[in-house]
Queue: 3 jobs
Job 1
Amino acid sequence: MAGSSAEVSMHSDPGGASSAHPAPAFDTWQWLQACHETWQATLAPDEVGGRLRRSRLARLIDTAQRDSPLYARRSPGAHALHDFAPITRAELMQQFDDWATDRRITRRAAEAFVADARCVADAWLGRYLLWTSLGTSGPPGLFVQDAASLAAYDAIDALRLRAADPAQAALGLWGLGRRFAYVGAIDDHHARHASIERLRRVVPAAWAPQVEMFSAREPLPRLAAQLQALQPGVLIADPGCASALARLQLQGALHLRLDELWLAGEPLAAAQRELLHSAFGGTLRHSYGASEFHTIAFECAHGRLHLNADWVILEAVDEHHHPVPDGALSHTALLTNLANLTQPLLRCELCDRIRYVPEPCPCGSTLPVIEVQGRSGTH
Ligand SMILES: [Zn+2]
């Protein structure tokens, strides 16, 4: 949800006016470097992507061992990924003050910051973007994004997530005068809300499309009426909310004419995809992400989810954390974020069941194809 432009107006504004404090500074050099590397890895996933993955992993392991007391204590002497024992979000939160590589990052300070909804997307500690998870699969999490991780998310967003149709550049997708509606959590520091707010701050106004924000907590009939009045060209929502709106549309109680539907967050079930297509038609853009990494996988023009394997490592494992073979459904998944050196994330359990699809994708990309089948329910 980063990488391009957005002028966001708050449709409902429970937190009052946005803070006057600046967002984390946009790091042009990091952004250019991340875009260049991501483009090269898109063209050659195995060779360039593999080389980047190995070098980023080595740097991550080195940094975590040297500067994160949590990892140094938990896995002393670890020098390869599998030397690190899998970790849960709950454990990371319990040992939050020892997790990051910047000793100013404490749970007390982070919780004090996110307690004020007015400072969404303000620079925290002068440089970081801080966001929260909703806690649907465990305790709410506090995630610190540094300039390097924001640059990686921006690059993925611009070059992969919004580029399923190569005829449309990322800025074109945001900036062709279309009207966007975002439905989600808008009264706190939730990841997607914080990301859109950040865009509003860092992108020059001349490039900015209009994004109206609606709370997913609104009663459905009221939300539908507001969307009906706005008539957005693009709706950004999670699959559950979009499905509820699709049922209203099929009942004749809603009349949206969407060019595109952007879905993120939850896995998308096949039945949901059919429902959304029959209700709204148009182009459906789906991605799979988490608070731990903004866009783990993106959907190509053939409707397959491709893993951003140069920026993340996602292990499909059984209940004992042993790897499952390609083609088999995992019990859970372990995520390693190769972009963030400030809050290192190595083998964090996501509780999603995933499957690596062995067959090549007709789109031609050799970035791995995964299927995601939702939470395993163990946490
Ligand atoms: Zn594909």
Job 2
Amino acid sequence: MDFSMTQEQQMLKRAARELMEKEIIPAAAEQERRGPASKEEVRRILKKLVPLGFLCGPLAEEHGGQGLNWLNWGILLEELGRGWAAMANTAIIQFNFAHQIAHLGTAEQKKKYLQPSLQADAIVSHSYSEPSSGSNLARLGTTATHTKDGWILNGDKVFISLSPVADWTLALAGIKGGDGKDSRGVFIVDRAQSPFTVAQSTRLGLRGMPSGEVSFVDCKVPLENQLPSAGYKETLIMLTASRLEIAAIAVGIAQAATDMSIRYAKQREAFGRPIGSFQLIQGQIADMVAETQAARLLTYEGLDQLDKGIHVGAQASIAKFYATETAARVTTLAVTIHGGYGLQDEYPVERYARDAITELIPDGPPQLQRLIAGRQILGMSAFT
Ligand SMILES: Cc1cc2nc3c(=O)[nH]c(=O)nc-3n(C[C@H](O)[C@H](O)[C@H](O)COP(=O)(O)OP(=O)(O)OC[C@H]3O[C@@H](n4cnc5c(N)ncnc54)[C@H](O)[C@@H]3O)c2cc1C
């Protein structure tokens, strides 16, 4: 067991931090104040992230990857989360789209959709959650009806990240017709070719990343846009890896809040001395460092298991709930350490706290992650 980073990992982390500090962080505060970024702004920021491998993650080189493994990509995501969590989430959406196409798509689909999403020439989204089924995707209301001319999609989706600016979305729907069986399928819906409506929504955190409600009304999708053999089960498998990505981003947010609190505690004075000299503040800082490092180790272990081809179901869920809850706790402590300034947007800690709370929910809230882990640990399902 070796807990130290290799030279290659240290270089990667340094390069990511330099890029973040020079190109990404300076734009973050202002954009987060303004709210959802426009399509041009999303594309401009993503383009800056392409060369280091933020969008292609651990995709194989034959699919446009750059030879990164999961662990190294997690290191990159942590740095991105530390600098601008909304853009870190944006990057994983682009990657997860390409990952799904690379693993489940036809040769034609790979040719058409992989490069534009990896290069941020096309912005993408994932339309899974619905107004009455988020945690339980098995109860989908959206339908895909098979006709001789193609699929017809009907239904509503909510909380869909990037949907207001996305060119393509991957839609999960219940299949009607065809061989007469009811099952579920995943469809690439090209907004230009198969128009659907999107109503932009706002939320507590990750404000720079646009989000919206998607409505498919008799939306005609060509037959060849169905991902072959991709359905509910394959979508859930993809979400497993994505939980480790969110965990890595949450570790980055917790680290940012810890770093800022250490700096502030050394310089802010109360009762004629730096607040960092008070025992209670020192205890809080020590808790922040300990919990962030524990979350990092759980996340790295899960990513390392992915690299080794080990099944990560429970590990991904444990890392996700522990890292996101850690980020929520650590950022709350950071706000209290900053006192009244912790709630002003001239300091980024209030954004860290809002972003950390927001990260608790996507790809399954903490309760769901505990149930997934519990099912594997105990061999009994609480869902059925
Ligand atoms: C920032 C953000 C980005 C998102 N991006 C996307 C996206 O791009 N695409 C997409 O499709 N979706 C997206 N979502 C939606 C997200 O995946 C869902 O919100 C999430 O899965 C929870 O579903 P829900 O909101 O319907 O909550 P519900 O399923 O209604 O759950 C409500 C509460 O009940 C709990 N609960 C549910 N079932 C159980 C149970 N069996 N036992 C115990 N507790 C239970 C949950 O843990 C939760 O606390 C995003 C959400 C957020 C916040």
Job 3
Amino acid sequence: MKIEPARIALVTGAARGIGRATTNLLLEKGYRVVAVDRATIDPTSSAGSPVNQNLWSASVDVTDHAAISALRDEIRKRWGDVAIVVNNAAISPKKANGRSAGILEIDDQEWQQVLAVNLTAVLKIAQAFLPGMQAGNWGRIVNVSSLAGRTKSIAAGASYMSSKAGVLALTRAIAGEMGPFGITANAIAPGRILTDMAMLSGPEANQLHAQQVPVRRLGTAEEVAASIAFLASEEAGFINGAVLDINGGFYMP
Ligand SMILES: NC(=O)c1ccc[n+]([C@@H]2O[C@H](COP(=O)([O-])OP(=O)(O)OC[C@H]3O[C@@H](n4cnc5c(N)ncnc54)[C@H](O)[C@@H]3O)[C@@H](O)[C@H]2O)c1
């Protein structure tokens, strides 16, 4: 269904993986999408169309708070207020052998960088765009957490696990405070999804994992994007502060 006038969605980490799939799906659904990534976004990869007037690609690092504010102002001038934010950009550092740093190995640089990208940026981006949503009395925030934020992770380290658990708490805080303004905030917690990030652990680890998933496979970026698009939709208006597990039945709390 085409939404008139097209709502504006902002998706971070949109150059590849889940962010790219989400961008494509939201464009397909008729939204205007601001695709944010620190990497260059290939415009031909989005919605299969080289020129899409509903797509705005912005090369911004989500930890650059001034750049996020400047982008918000530019979007407001050209298109209007962003109504949907998908906080998807994240990093999951691995050592050369494909493993995460153990609890005794994590250094300050890793800890600070992971929290800056995976957690602090989620707060700063919410702070940047929530006032616009409040003004419009409608908004959706969809934060991408992880199975690693729900329970002990098999692959991710403590910095990533902590950041993703923090995202769940932040989501609940936003949901509680912003509900009265017609704004919902929800999180998704994907299990292993076949993207570049998952490949950091190597194909063997992924195969081994698939054998332990009830549906016997890893998830796809498109499957995750479908859940994000649902939580961003009008129909999902009574879902607030929820966590949607997307893991093939690997984890059933
Ligand atoms: N793939 C999985 O198995 C899996 C599982 C659980 C959760 N997740 C989460 O899903 C989300 C997307 O993961 P993915 O697998 O598509 O990852 P990915 O690594 O394939 O893509 C992440 C994108 O984020 C961008 N990015 C990273 N740091 C950034 C920054 N500082 N500023 C702007 N952009 C930045 C990268 O350039 C990249 O394009 C992440 O939040 C991740 O933690 C992934």
